Amino acid sequence: MVTTEQIKELRERTGISIGQCKKALEEVGGDMDKALESLKAQGAAIAEKKSGRSLGAGVVSAYIHGNGKIGALVEISTETDFVAKNPEFHALADDLSMQVAAMPPADLEELLAQPFIKDPSLTIKDLVQNYVQKFGERIEIVRFVRFDTSVSA
User: Which pLDDT belongs to residue 146?
Assistant: First the structure.
């Protein structure tokens, strides 16, 4: 039997709805690691289903490293203004701009494959898919740019 504490812990770790967390735990007999894997797999499937939806809203986030010599801008889009205004969506954009500043990717493919600097067990692609699962909307990194004053033009 799955306990309320287990559901609460999984929700806190993933940010995914209580119903999805409960279902995932029930399917794997309460095993937290297997539930996390199940939710990760579901996230990929959900993201794939939503990949054809049109994007109509988004945000731009900037990150400037403490010394002022490195900065990054990232634009991410989603389907609705409702999600684009959500503080958690803005937090995702902020995390992505910090990622670009810290781990300079050559292109979007490389960015998506990078381990997330705040949780190396996730790739950036996994991170975005988690938010797609959380919000139920398509989310896409539209573009990014990194500035570094120590690199000559």
Answer: 96
Strand 119-123 versus strand 115-116 pairing type: antiparallel
The rounded distance, in Å, linking the Cα atoms of 146 and 11 is 33
Tokens of 83: 């999600």
- CATH of segment(s) 4-50: 1.10.8.10
Fold of 57-148: Tetrahydropterin Synthase; Chain A (3.30.479)
CA dist 76 → 29, 144, 151 (Å)? 37, 9, 26
Low-confidence ranges of the chain (pLDDT < 70): 43-53, 152-153
What residue spans define the domains of the chain?
A: 4-50, 57-148
